[in-house]
Specification:
By secondary structure, the chain is an alpha+beta fold. The protein contains ten helices and eleven strands. The termini are far apart. The chain binds flavin-adenine dinucleotide. This is Acyl-CoA dehydrogenase. GO terms for molecular function: fatty-acyl-CoA binding; flavin adenine dinucleotide binding; glutaryl-CoA dehydrogenase activity.
Length: about 375
Protein backbone atom coordinates (compact mmCIF):
# COMPACT_ATOMS: atom_id res chain seq x y z
CA UNK A 1 0.00 0.00 0.00
CA UNK A 2 1.20 3.54 -0.71
CA UNK A 3 -0.09 6.87 0.53
CA UNK A 4 -2.16 8.83 -2.02
CA UNK A 5 0.47 11.58 -2.15
CA UNK A 6 3.28 9.06 -2.71
CA UNK A 7 1.66 8.08 -6.02
CA UNK A 8 2.84 11.41 -7.43
CA UNK A 9 6.12 11.54 -5.45
CA UNK A 10 5.01 14.94 -4.22
CA UNK A 11 7.76 15.13 -1.62
CA UNK A 12 10.45 15.15 -4.30
CA UNK A 13 9.18 18.64 -5.21
CA UNK A 14 9.66 19.97 -1.68
CA UNK A 15 12.73 21.18 0.17
CA UNK A 16 13.74 19.75 3.56
CA UNK A 17 12.60 22.98 5.20
CA UNK A 18 9.17 22.77 3.55
CA UNK A 19 8.72 19.17 4.68
CA UNK A 20 9.78 20.16 8.20
CA UNK A 21 7.22 22.99 8.32
CA UNK A 22 4.52 20.61 7.12
CA UNK A 23 5.42 18.12 9.89
CA UNK A 24 5.44 20.84 12.55
CA UNK A 25 1.98 22.08 11.61
CA UNK A 26 0.69 18.50 11.39
CA UNK A 27 2.00 17.79 14.88
CA UNK A 28 0.28 20.88 16.28
CA UNK A 29 -2.97 19.86 14.59
CA UNK A 30 -2.70 16.28 15.90
CA UNK A 31 -2.09 17.52 19.44
CA UNK A 32 -4.21 20.65 19.75
CA UNK A 33 -6.95 20.42 17.16
CA UNK A 34 -7.92 16.93 15.96
CA UNK A 35 -8.96 15.61 19.40
CA UNK A 36 -11.41 18.52 19.84
CA UNK A 37 -12.50 19.74 16.43
CA UNK A 38 -15.57 17.52 15.94
CA UNK A 39 -16.86 18.78 19.32
CA UNK A 40 -16.22 22.42 18.38
CA UNK A 41 -18.03 21.81 15.11
CA UNK A 42 -20.98 20.14 16.83
CA UNK A 43 -21.25 22.92 19.43
CA UNK A 44 -20.66 25.67 16.84
CA UNK A 45 -17.84 27.12 18.95
CA UNK A 46 -14.17 27.81 18.48
CA UNK A 47 -11.67 28.78 21.21
CA UNK A 48 -10.23 31.28 18.75
CA UNK A 49 -8.10 33.27 21.20
CA UNK A 50 -6.34 30.20 22.60
CA UNK A 51 -5.85 28.76 19.15
CA UNK A 52 -4.47 32.02 17.78
CA UNK A 53 -1.83 32.03 20.53
CA UNK A 54 -0.94 28.41 19.82
CA UNK A 55 -0.70 29.02 16.08
CA UNK A 56 1.24 32.23 16.67
CA UNK A 57 3.76 30.37 18.83
CA UNK A 58 4.63 28.09 15.90
CA UNK A 59 4.93 31.03 13.50
CA UNK A 60 1.99 30.22 11.23
CA UNK A 61 0.22 33.61 11.42
CA UNK A 62 1.34 35.86 8.57
CA UNK A 63 4.17 33.38 7.97
CA UNK A 64 4.58 34.43 4.31
CA UNK A 65 5.16 38.09 5.25
CA UNK A 66 8.56 39.64 6.02
CA UNK A 67 9.50 41.62 9.12
CA UNK A 68 7.33 42.81 12.03
CA UNK A 69 7.61 39.44 13.79
CA UNK A 70 6.50 37.46 10.71
CA UNK A 71 8.40 34.36 9.63
CA UNK A 72 9.08 35.39 6.00
CA UNK A 73 8.54 31.89 4.60
CA UNK A 74 8.05 30.98 0.94
CA UNK A 75 4.68 30.47 -0.71
CA UNK A 76 4.93 26.67 -0.80
CA UNK A 77 5.70 26.54 2.94
CA UNK A 78 2.68 28.72 3.61
CA UNK A 79 0.56 26.54 1.32
CA UNK A 80 1.64 23.36 3.10
CA UNK A 81 0.71 24.90 6.45
CA UNK A 82 -2.73 25.72 5.03
CA UNK A 83 -2.99 22.14 3.76
CA UNK A 84 -2.29 20.67 7.20
CA UNK A 85 -4.63 23.11 8.95
CA UNK A 86 -7.47 22.38 6.55
CA UNK A 87 -6.84 18.62 6.85
CA UNK A 88 -7.88 19.24 10.47
CA UNK A 89 -10.76 21.60 9.64
CA UNK A 90 -11.50 24.34 7.10
CA UNK A 91 -12.51 26.57 10.02
CA UNK A 92 -8.96 26.49 11.37
CA UNK A 93 -7.49 27.32 8.00
CA UNK A 94 -10.04 30.13 7.67
CA UNK A 95 -8.90 31.64 10.97
CA UNK A 96 -5.30 31.58 9.77
CA UNK A 97 -6.09 32.79 6.22
CA UNK A 98 -8.14 35.73 7.43
CA UNK A 99 -5.58 36.67 10.05
CA UNK A 100 -2.49 36.33 7.82
CA UNK A 101 -3.60 36.80 4.23
CA UNK A 102 -6.45 39.28 4.65
CA UNK A 103 -6.06 41.35 7.82
CA UNK A 104 -2.27 41.23 8.31
CA UNK A 105 -1.53 41.36 4.58
CA UNK A 106 -3.72 44.47 4.19
CA UNK A 107 -1.78 46.22 6.97
CA UNK A 108 1.60 44.91 5.75
CA UNK A 109 0.99 45.90 2.13
CA UNK A 110 -1.04 49.11 2.47
CA UNK A 111 -0.51 50.31 6.04
CA UNK A 112 1.59 53.18 7.42
CA UNK A 113 4.74 52.37 9.41
CA UNK A 114 2.86 53.22 12.63
CA UNK A 115 -0.03 50.88 11.72
CA UNK A 116 2.43 48.06 10.94
CA UNK A 117 4.30 48.55 14.21
CA UNK A 118 1.09 48.74 16.20
CA UNK A 119 -0.63 45.63 14.82
CA UNK A 120 1.63 43.20 12.97
CA UNK A 121 3.96 41.85 15.72
CA UNK A 122 1.02 41.21 18.08
CA UNK A 123 -1.02 39.62 15.28
CA UNK A 124 1.89 37.39 14.24
CA UNK A 125 2.15 36.21 17.86
CA UNK A 126 -1.60 35.53 17.98
CA UNK A 127 -2.06 38.01 20.82
CA UNK A 128 -4.36 40.08 18.65
CA UNK A 129 -6.82 38.89 16.02
CA UNK A 130 -7.99 40.66 12.87
CA UNK A 131 -10.87 40.36 10.44
CA UNK A 132 -11.56 41.67 6.95
CA UNK A 133 -14.85 43.35 6.12
CA UNK A 134 -15.57 43.58 2.41
CA UNK A 135 -18.84 41.68 1.80
CA UNK A 136 -22.15 43.41 2.55
CA UNK A 137 -25.65 41.95 2.84
CA UNK A 138 -26.47 43.02 -0.74
CA UNK A 139 -23.00 42.89 -2.30
CA UNK A 140 -20.87 39.73 -2.22
CA UNK A 141 -19.67 38.78 -5.70
CA UNK A 142 -19.94 42.44 -6.74
CA UNK A 143 -18.13 44.35 -3.98
CA UNK A 144 -17.92 47.42 -6.23
CA UNK A 145 -21.55 48.06 -5.34
CA UNK A 146 -20.78 48.46 -1.63
CA UNK A 147 -22.86 50.93 0.36
CA UNK A 148 -20.58 51.41 3.38
CA UNK A 149 -19.27 54.96 3.43
CA UNK A 150 -16.45 56.87 5.09
CA UNK A 151 -16.84 60.64 5.17
CA UNK A 152 -14.31 63.26 6.18
CA UNK A 153 -15.33 65.39 9.17
CA UNK A 154 -12.50 67.77 9.96
CA UNK A 155 -9.46 65.55 10.49
CA UNK A 156 -11.61 62.49 11.30
CA UNK A 157 -13.36 59.82 9.27
CA UNK A 158 -16.95 58.79 10.05
CA UNK A 159 -17.96 55.31 8.91
CA UNK A 160 -21.49 53.99 8.30
CA UNK A 161 -22.64 50.69 6.86
CA UNK A 162 -22.95 46.94 7.42
CA UNK A 163 -20.52 44.17 6.57
CA UNK A 164 -21.77 40.58 6.49
CA UNK A 165 -20.31 37.06 6.73
CA UNK A 166 -17.10 38.28 8.34
CA UNK A 167 -14.79 35.50 9.58
CA UNK A 168 -13.24 36.15 13.04
CA UNK A 169 -15.59 39.16 13.42
CA UNK A 170 -16.54 38.96 17.09
CA UNK A 171 -13.15 37.69 18.26
CA UNK A 172 -11.19 40.42 16.49
CA UNK A 173 -9.27 43.27 18.03
CA UNK A 174 -9.19 45.09 14.71
CA UNK A 175 -11.38 45.02 11.62
CA UNK A 176 -10.02 46.01 8.22
CA UNK A 177 -13.14 47.66 6.77
CA UNK A 178 -13.50 48.73 3.15
CA UNK A 179 -15.77 51.72 2.52
CA UNK A 180 -16.68 54.16 -0.22
CA UNK A 181 -15.18 57.66 0.05
CA UNK A 182 -15.26 60.70 -2.25
CA UNK A 183 -12.01 59.41 -3.73
CA UNK A 184 -13.16 55.79 -4.23
CA UNK A 185 -12.93 52.68 -2.02
CA UNK A 186 -10.46 52.97 0.88
CA UNK A 187 -9.51 50.65 3.76
CA UNK A 188 -9.81 51.57 7.47
CA UNK A 189 -8.58 49.96 10.68
CA UNK A 190 -11.51 49.86 13.07
CA UNK A 191 -10.57 48.82 16.62
CA UNK A 192 -12.95 46.57 18.55
CA UNK A 193 -15.10 48.57 20.95
CA UNK A 194 -15.01 51.82 18.95
CA UNK A 195 -18.22 53.77 19.77
CA UNK A 196 -20.91 52.92 17.17
CA UNK A 197 -19.20 49.67 16.14
CA UNK A 198 -21.20 46.52 16.99
CA UNK A 199 -20.63 42.92 16.00
CA UNK A 200 -23.28 40.16 15.88
CA UNK A 201 -22.48 36.51 15.26
CA UNK A 202 -24.19 34.60 12.45
CA UNK A 203 -26.03 31.66 14.02
CA UNK A 204 -27.42 28.43 12.55
CA UNK A 205 -24.59 27.79 10.08
CA UNK A 206 -24.44 24.18 8.89
CA UNK A 207 -20.99 24.73 7.34
CA UNK A 208 -17.75 26.03 8.91
CA UNK A 209 -19.26 25.59 12.36
CA UNK A 210 -15.80 25.62 13.94
CA UNK A 211 -15.31 29.20 12.74
CA UNK A 212 -16.64 32.54 13.94
CA UNK A 213 -18.72 34.38 11.30
CA UNK A 214 -20.17 37.80 12.11
CA UNK A 215 -22.02 40.87 10.96
CA UNK A 216 -20.20 44.18 11.51
CA UNK A 217 -22.43 47.23 12.00
CA UNK A 218 -20.86 50.69 11.71
CA UNK A 219 -23.15 53.43 12.93
CA UNK A 220 -21.37 56.76 12.83
CA UNK A 221 -18.02 55.26 13.88
CA UNK A 222 -15.60 58.16 14.27
CA UNK A 223 -11.95 57.34 13.58
CA UNK A 224 -8.85 59.54 13.50
CA UNK A 225 -7.42 60.45 10.08
CA UNK A 226 -4.58 58.00 10.51
CA UNK A 227 -7.01 55.02 10.70
CA UNK A 228 -7.05 54.89 6.90
CA UNK A 229 -4.65 52.53 5.10
CA UNK A 230 -2.65 55.03 3.03
CA UNK A 231 -1.44 52.58 0.37
CA UNK A 232 -4.76 51.14 -0.85
CA UNK A 233 -6.81 53.04 -3.41
CA UNK A 234 -9.85 51.57 -5.11
CA UNK A 235 -11.03 47.97 -5.26
CA UNK A 236 -7.57 46.72 -6.23
CA UNK A 237 -6.71 47.07 -2.50
CA UNK A 238 -9.12 44.44 -1.17
CA UNK A 239 -8.82 42.32 -4.32
CA UNK A 240 -5.04 42.12 -3.80
CA UNK A 241 -5.66 40.70 -0.32
CA UNK A 242 -8.22 38.20 -1.62
CA UNK A 243 -5.69 36.93 -4.12
CA UNK A 244 -3.35 36.10 -1.21
CA UNK A 245 -6.04 34.21 0.68
CA UNK A 246 -7.21 32.34 -2.41
CA UNK A 247 -3.71 31.02 -2.89
CA UNK A 248 -3.86 29.42 0.58
CA UNK A 249 -7.16 27.77 -0.37
CA UNK A 250 -5.54 26.13 -3.42
CA UNK A 251 -3.46 24.09 -0.94
CA UNK A 252 -5.93 24.03 1.94
CA UNK A 253 -8.77 22.44 -0.01
CA UNK A 254 -6.44 19.59 -0.95
CA UNK A 255 -5.75 19.07 2.77
CA UNK A 256 -9.46 18.50 3.41
CA UNK A 257 -9.58 16.14 0.43
CA UNK A 258 -6.52 14.21 1.61
CA UNK A 259 -7.99 13.72 5.07
CA UNK A 260 -11.21 12.40 3.50
CA UNK A 261 -9.36 10.03 1.18
CA UNK A 262 -7.11 8.66 3.91
CA UNK A 263 -10.17 8.11 6.10
CA UNK A 264 -12.04 6.35 3.29
CA UNK A 265 -9.09 4.07 2.41
CA UNK A 266 -8.73 3.00 6.04
CA UNK A 267 -12.47 2.48 6.39
CA UNK A 268 -12.73 0.44 3.17
CA UNK A 269 -9.91 -1.80 4.40
CA UNK A 270 -11.66 -2.52 7.71
CA UNK A 271 -15.29 -2.67 6.67
CA UNK A 272 -16.59 -6.03 5.43
CA UNK A 273 -19.54 -6.20 3.05
CA UNK A 274 -20.72 -9.45 1.46
CA UNK A 275 -18.03 -11.20 3.56
CA UNK A 276 -15.13 -9.29 1.95
CA UNK A 277 -13.37 -6.01 2.68
CA UNK A 278 -15.10 -3.09 0.98
CA UNK A 279 -11.66 -2.20 -0.43
CA UNK A 280 -11.56 -5.45 -2.43
CA UNK A 281 -14.48 -4.51 -4.71
CA UNK A 282 -13.71 -3.08 -8.13
CA UNK A 283 -16.25 -0.28 -7.77
CA UNK A 284 -14.52 0.83 -4.58
CA UNK A 285 -11.10 0.69 -6.17
CA UNK A 286 -12.27 2.74 -9.13
CA UNK A 287 -13.58 5.41 -6.75
CA UNK A 288 -10.30 5.42 -4.82
CA UNK A 289 -8.21 5.58 -8.00
CA UNK A 290 -10.25 8.47 -9.41
CA UNK A 291 -9.98 10.39 -6.16
CA UNK A 292 -6.21 9.79 -5.87
CA UNK A 293 -5.80 11.13 -9.42
CA UNK A 294 -7.72 14.34 -8.73
CA UNK A 295 -5.94 14.81 -5.41
CA UNK A 296 -2.53 14.31 -6.99
CA UNK A 297 -3.27 16.66 -9.88
CA UNK A 298 -4.57 19.28 -7.46
CA UNK A 299 -1.45 19.02 -5.30
CA UNK A 300 0.85 19.28 -8.30
CA UNK A 301 -1.04 22.36 -9.45
CA UNK A 302 -0.78 23.85 -5.95
CA UNK A 303 3.00 23.34 -5.77
CA UNK A 304 3.42 24.70 -9.31
CA UNK A 305 1.43 27.83 -8.45
CA UNK A 306 3.48 28.15 -5.26
CA UNK A 307 6.70 28.14 -7.24
CA UNK A 308 5.27 30.78 -9.61
CA UNK A 309 4.32 32.87 -6.57
CA UNK A 310 7.80 32.54 -5.14
CA UNK A 311 9.23 33.64 -8.51
CA UNK A 312 6.90 36.67 -8.43
CA UNK A 313 5.24 35.78 -11.74
CA UNK A 314 1.89 34.34 -10.65
CA UNK A 315 -1.20 36.05 -12.11
CA UNK A 316 -4.67 36.45 -10.54
CA UNK A 317 -6.08 34.24 -13.33
CA UNK A 318 -3.72 31.43 -12.32
CA UNK A 319 -4.84 31.73 -8.71
CA UNK A 320 -8.47 31.63 -9.91
CA UNK A 321 -7.72 28.46 -11.89
CA UNK A 322 -6.22 26.84 -8.79
CA UNK A 323 -9.05 27.89 -6.48
CA UNK A 324 -11.77 26.83 -8.92
CA UNK A 325 -10.24 23.44 -9.70
CA UNK A 326 -9.03 22.42 -6.27
CA UNK A 327 -12.10 23.39 -4.25
CA UNK A 328 -14.43 21.80 -6.81
CA UNK A 329 -12.42 18.57 -6.84
CA UNK A 330 -12.02 18.54 -3.04
CA UNK A 331 -15.79 18.77 -2.69
CA UNK A 332 -16.25 15.89 -5.16
CA UNK A 333 -13.69 13.82 -3.26
CA UNK A 334 -15.40 14.53 0.07
CA UNK A 335 -18.79 13.52 -1.34
CA UNK A 336 -17.42 10.33 -2.90
CA UNK A 337 -15.61 9.38 0.33
CA UNK A 338 -18.86 9.93 2.18
CA UNK A 339 -20.51 7.26 0.01
CA UNK A 340 -17.78 4.77 0.90
CA UNK A 341 -18.45 5.26 4.61
CA UNK A 342 -22.15 4.44 4.18
CA UNK A 343 -24.27 5.49 7.15
CA UNK A 344 -21.15 6.06 9.26
CA UNK A 345 -20.29 8.77 6.77
CA UNK A 346 -23.09 11.01 7.99
CA UNK A 347 -21.83 11.16 11.59
CA UNK A 348 -19.16 13.34 13.18
CA UNK A 349 -17.37 10.17 14.29
CA UNK A 350 -15.50 10.50 10.99
CA UNK A 351 -14.26 13.82 9.56
CA UNK A 352 -15.66 13.31 6.06
CA UNK A 353 -19.12 14.90 6.32
CA UNK A 354 -17.59 17.80 8.29
CA UNK A 355 -15.09 18.44 5.49
CA UNK A 356 -17.83 18.07 2.90
CA UNK A 357 -20.13 20.69 4.42
CA UNK A 358 -17.18 22.96 5.22
CA UNK A 359 -16.10 22.90 1.59
CA UNK A 360 -19.51 24.29 0.59
CA UNK A 361 -18.44 27.56 2.24
CA UNK A 362 -14.97 27.36 0.74
CA UNK A 363 -16.60 27.01 -2.70
CA UNK A 364 -18.46 30.28 -2.05
CA UNK A 365 -16.05 32.55 -0.20
CA UNK A 366 -12.98 34.25 -1.65
CA UNK A 367 -14.86 34.41 -4.97
CA UNK A 368 -17.52 31.84 -5.84
CA UNK A 369 -16.76 29.07 -8.32
CA UNK A 370 -18.95 30.92 -10.85
CA UNK A 371 -16.94 34.13 -10.47
CA UNK A 372 -13.64 32.25 -10.93
CA UNK A 373 -15.08 30.57 -14.03
CA UNK A 374 -15.93 34.05 -15.34
CA UNK A 375 -12.38 35.24 -14.60
CA UNK A 376 -11.04 32.36 -16.69
CA UNK A 377 -13.68 32.93 -19.36
CA UNK A 378 -12.58 36.55 -19.68
CA UNK A 379 -8.92 35.53 -19.85
CA UNK A 380 -9.65 32.99 -22.58
CA UNK A 381 -11.96 35.11 -24.73
CA UNK A 382 -11.05 38.68 -23.89
CA UNK A 383 -14.76 39.27 -23.17
CA UNK A 384 -15.94 40.03 -19.63
CA UNK A 385 -19.29 38.34 -18.85
CA UNK A 386 -19.67 39.50 -15.24
CA UNK A 387 -22.52 41.95 -15.81
C1 LIG B 1 -18.50 31.10 6.12
C2 LIG B 1 -18.22 32.34 5.32
C3 LIG B 1 -17.20 33.18 5.70
C4 LIG B 1 -16.96 34.37 4.97
N1 LIG B 1 -15.96 35.23 5.40
C5 LIG B 1 -15.84 36.46 4.81
C6 LIG B 1 -14.91 37.42 5.30
O1 LIG B 1 -14.15 37.16 6.24
N2 LIG B 1 -14.88 38.66 4.75
C7 LIG B 1 -15.71 39.01 3.71
O2 LIG B 1 -15.64 40.15 3.25
N3 LIG B 1 -16.59 38.10 3.19
C8 LIG B 1 -16.68 36.84 3.72
N4 LIG B 1 -17.59 35.92 3.23
C9 LIG B 1 -18.49 36.33 2.16
C10 LIG B 1 -18.19 35.68 0.81
O3 LIG B 1 -17.02 36.22 0.26
C11 LIG B 1 -19.42 35.91 -0.07
O4 LIG B 1 -20.44 35.08 0.44
C12 LIG B 1 -19.16 35.58 -1.53
O5 LIG B 1 -18.35 36.57 -2.12
C13 LIG B 1 -20.46 35.47 -2.34
O6 LIG B 1 -21.28 36.56 -2.10
P1 LIG B 1 -22.84 36.34 -1.75
O7 LIG B 1 -22.92 35.33 -0.65
O8 LIG B 1 -23.42 37.68 -1.53
O9 LIG B 1 -23.45 35.66 -3.04
P2 LIG B 1 -23.95 36.43 -4.36
O10 LIG B 1 -22.90 37.37 -4.83
O11 LIG B 1 -25.32 36.96 -4.11
O12 LIG B 1 -24.03 35.21 -5.37
C14 LIG B 1 -25.15 34.28 -5.40
C15 LIG B 1 -24.92 33.35 -6.57
O13 LIG B 1 -24.89 34.12 -7.76
C16 LIG B 1 -23.71 33.81 -8.48
N5 LIG B 1 -23.30 34.98 -9.27
C17 LIG B 1 -22.95 36.20 -8.79
N6 LIG B 1 -22.60 37.00 -9.81
C18 LIG B 1 -22.73 36.27 -10.95
C19 LIG B 1 -22.51 36.52 -12.32
N7 LIG B 1 -22.06 37.71 -12.75
N8 LIG B 1 -22.77 35.54 -13.21
C20 LIG B 1 -23.20 34.32 -12.80
N9 LIG B 1 -23.42 34.01 -11.51
C21 LIG B 1 -23.18 34.98 -10.60
C22 LIG B 1 -22.71 33.44 -7.43
O14 LIG B 1 -21.62 32.70 -7.99
C23 LIG B 1 -23.57 32.61 -6.51
O15 LIG B 1 -23.70 31.31 -7.02
C24 LIG B 1 -17.78 34.69 3.87
C25 LIG B 1 -18.79 33.79 3.47
C26 LIG B 1 -19.00 32.64 4.18
C27 LIG B 1 -20.10 31.70 3.73
Amino acid sequence: MIAPTALFALDTLLTDEEREIRSTVRRVCDREIRPHVAGWFEDGELPARELARTLGSVGVLGMHLDGYGCAGMGAVSYGLACLELEAADSGLRSLVSVQGSLAMYAIWKYGSEEQKQEWLPAMAAGERIGCFGLTEPDFGSDPGGMRATAKREGGDWVLNGTKMWITNGSVSDVAVVWARTDEGVRGFLVPAGAPGFTVNDVKHKISLRASVTSELVLDGVRLPGEAMLPGARGLSGPLGCLNEARFGIVFGSMGAALDCLETAIAYAGDREVFARPLASFQLTQEKLADMALELGKGLLLAVHLGRLKEAGTITPEQVSAGKLNNVREALEIARKCRTLLGASGVTLEYPVIRHSVNLESVLTYEGTSEIHALVLGKALTGIGAFS
